[in-house]
Design a protein that fits this description.
Chain lengths: 349, 374
């Protein structure tokens, strides 16, 4: 996709988000992404952006896809993460073996709950699935999109990764720190209809998490931009000591520097070569760190108003932190980057 | 120089730790956070067991620290029901002290301080709420925002404009005691806060609220001075809240690292060790500044520079500790108490004077001191 096409796509996503997400962003945080929004995302071709056209997806290239999730994140990181999950996690794990499920994913007819708890850093929890006659039963302590029809989960007993087509029951929702629009929570599985997606389940899950470098960078930058946009609008009109906040050095110059950082990282994202692992990791590590700093500053510039959800900036602060834990393995990523820099295993002591 | 506390303060800390162990747990903290519910039972128990006694400020300081270490939202809620009492204590009449302070000191009543207004904040002198004398009363009109204990307090100490003084905005402000059951007084609970969700916060609306003349605190037009004096006190307590949050985050990091070690990860990554060391060092530094500021304050010779240093540094330590603690503990942190500590900690840099305001106070004071010496 050329830069001009990327710009056009960005405008289309922005227009869609202004119409379909902006005024509902708080509702999404409280109630999750409803089926109407899911259908709208699908109708625009955003939901199944990377899914092949034969399954009802758009089959667009990587940079087009990154543009979509980047722009969506400026309005709702949860919606952006949903599109990432569908394209880069669910579709990647399910693949061509389940054409019917892929079609439902691309068209928003169904969603898939997925649990990364077995592979994320610092996790003590693990899924506990067991064979039970011809079926499989167990509990998954935490998953995203837990109120889905399907679920993908790892069975520690046999080391396989499964797709469950029935018997997926959402237990009480736990909104947690971040990505509240994804409806996170525990699952109960009592299924008789399931497929093995991988016989090396843990490795598959790790690989899929580690493959999200550019997606995570795109969401991080969109999240930061969403918060910075709000802060810039706010400090222009908010006065203190009879002057607009933007006129004060730490505010005006601080925000300007953060925007400069954003622009530099965004231009890298627009042109990154997906085969260049060093560039991918650099973008992810820097963008996630940047998102945490930018969203924190944006909240601070709002003062007390930043601390309440109505202003819409606190979710970016929560999601930036959540992004660094829920969709990546930060210590492992730093080690990968060190290996790229030194050409051998480094920084592990 | 002796850095150790006397025995009675150490005992107060132990008593608060024991109370926290018995009365506060993760599940309860999570529930009150999710439901945005004020822990009235916990507050009452804290009074019944003699934990809340602002006449003994050192004990109060360490008690706040220990309760916030267990959980920030619950810890603050249990100790904040006398918020603003020092204004009456220092500048109020004997009759006001008798009528209003007796019952808040026993925990029977709750009070609050109402200074901030919608669209206001750091600019305290920009108060727009007005009081006009009429028929032997003051008639109050305006609104107050982000008021702690807003819907549960029986009365508030409020900063209100009584006079316009050309070119001197901080003049013409007066402090009043305003009962919350007066006609024309309404309150809207603010929900959906990022953190400290167990605490009660509200917007207050004053629509022709008639306040008896005898509820004016001290002299008319001196309110700004009274409130600034109060902030010098309250900021030391906020620093204690922040230290508690930071210590609570470190406790959970150490628990996590200890578990890792027990499970065979004998060589912890040095990056993680450095972070834990940074958190612990910042907490120790925050304690030293806060205790020094408190020592001046509690001897009735406040040092606003030190108090602002304590408030700003301890607050930034709280957010630093909570953020780094989440980074160290990763998924287990985000699924446990630390996600709440992360959300709770951010308010420390905002309320009772943002970090930016504290830094302005510090720099203005040190420049002034330099100019005086030079």
């Amino acid at each position: 996709m050329s830069m001009e096409e990327q710009d056009l796509l960005r405008s289309a996503v922005k227009e869609f988000a202004q119409k379909s997400i902006q005024d509902r962003a708080l509702k999404i945080e409280h109630e999750g992404i409803d089926s109407a929004l899911l259908q709208s995302l699908a109708a625009q071709g955003f939901l199944g952006a990377r899914i092949p056209e034969k399954y009802g997806g758009s089959g667009i290239d990587l940079h087009g896809y990154l543009t979509i999730i980047n722009e969506l994140a400026t309005f709702s990181p949860s919606v952006s993460a949903l599109v990432m999950l569908v394209n880069s996690v669910h579709a990647a794990l399910i693949g061509d073996s389940e054409p019917e499920v892929m079609k439902k994913l691309a068209t928003g007819e169904a969603t898939v709950a997925v649990s990364f708890s077995d592979v994320l850093e610092g996790s003590w929890t693990a899924t506990s699935l067991q064979k039970s006659g011809n079926g499989m039963k167990g509990a998954i302590q935490a998953s995203t999109l837990h109120n889905s029809q399907y679920a993908i989960a790892f069975n520690r007993e046999d080391g396989h990764l499964y797709l469950f087509r029935n018997g997926v029951k959402a237990l009480e929702e736990d909104s947690g720190l971040s990505f509240r629009g994804l409806s996170n929570g525990p699952l109960e599985i009592d299924s008789t209809d399931f497929t093995v997606l991988s016989d090396r389940g843990l490795e598959s899950l790790k690989n899929v998490v580690d493959s999200l470098d550019l997606e995570v960078a795109a969401i991080a930058l969109g999240t930061a931009k969403g918060a910075l946009d709000k802060a810039i609008d706010y400090v222009k009109v908010r006065k203190t000591f009879e002057r607009p906040l933007k006129d004060y050095g730490p505010v005006g110059n601080g925000l300007s520097k953060l925007m400069a950082e954003y622009l530099a990282l965004s231009s890298l994202l627009d042109t990154v070569d997906e085969k260049d692992e060093r560039a991918r990791l650099t973008l992810k590590v820097l963008s996630v760190d940047f998102a945490k700093r930018a969203t924190k500053a944006a909240l601070q510039y709002h003062g007390g108003y930043g601390y309440i959800e109505d202003t819409g900036v606190e979710k970016f602060y929560r999601d930036a932190m959540g992004l660094s834990i829920l969709f990546q393995r930060p210590h492992h990523d730093t080690m990968r980057l060190s290996k790229e820099i030194f050409g051998e295993k480094s920084g592990y002591l | 120089m002796d850095f150790d506390f006397p025995e009675d303060i150490n005992n107060a800390r132990k008593k608060a730790q024991e109370f926290a162990r018995k009365e506060i747990n993760s599940r309860m903290a999570k529930e009150y956070d999710r439901k945005e519910k004020f822990p009235e039972e916990l507050r009452k128990k804290a009074f019944e067991q003699g934990l809340v006694d602002y006449t003994n400020p050192w004990s109060m300081l360490v008690t706040i620290e220990e309760l916030c270490r267990a959980d920030p939202g619950l810890g603050i809620s249990a100790t904040v029901s006398l918020f603003g009492a020092e204004v009456i204590m220092l500048f109020g009449s004997d009759a006001q002290k008798q009528k209003y302070l007796t019952q808040v000191q026993t925990g029977e009543k709750i009070m609050g301080l109402a200074v901030t207004e919608p669209g206001g904040g750091s600019d305290v002198a920009g108060i727009k709420t007005r009081a006009v004398e009429k028929d032997g009363k003051y008639i109050l009109n305006g609104a107050k925002m982000f008021i702690t204990n807003g819907t549960i307090a029986d009365f508030f100490v409020m900063l209100i404009r009584t006079e316009e003084v050309e070119g001197k905005r901080h003049h013409g402000l007066s402090a009043f005691i305003v009962d919350s059951d007066l006609p024309g007084f309404s309150k809207n609970k603010l929900s959906g806060k990022l953190g400290v969700r167990a605490t009660n916060t509200a917007e207050l609306i004053l629509d022709n609220v008639p306040v008896p003349k005898e509820n004016l605190i001290g002299e008319p037009g001196k309110g700004f001075y009274y409130i600034m004096t109060f902030f010098n006190i309250s900021r030391a307590y906020v620093a204690a809240q922040a230290i508690g949050i930071a210590q609570g985050a470190l406790d959970r990091v150490l628990e996590h690292l200890n578990r890792l070690t027990k499970e065979g990860n004998t060589a912890l990554a040095e990056e993680v060790q450095f972070l834990a060391a940074d958190i612990a060092t910042r907490i120790e530094a925050s304690r030293l500044i806060t205790y020094k500021a408190a020592s001046y304050l509690f001897q009735f010779r406040p040092n606003p520079t030190l108090t602002s240093m304590a408030k700003a540094y301890a607050s930034e330590t709280a957010t630093f500790a909570a953020e780094k603690a989440l980074e160290i503990t990763g998924y287990s942190g985000i699924m446990g108490d630390l996600e709440r500590f992360f959300r709770d900690s951010k308010i420390m840099e905002i309320w009772e004077g943002t970090s930016e305001i504290e830094k302005l106070i510090i720099s203005r004071n040190i420049l002034k001191e330099y100019a005086e010496v030079a």
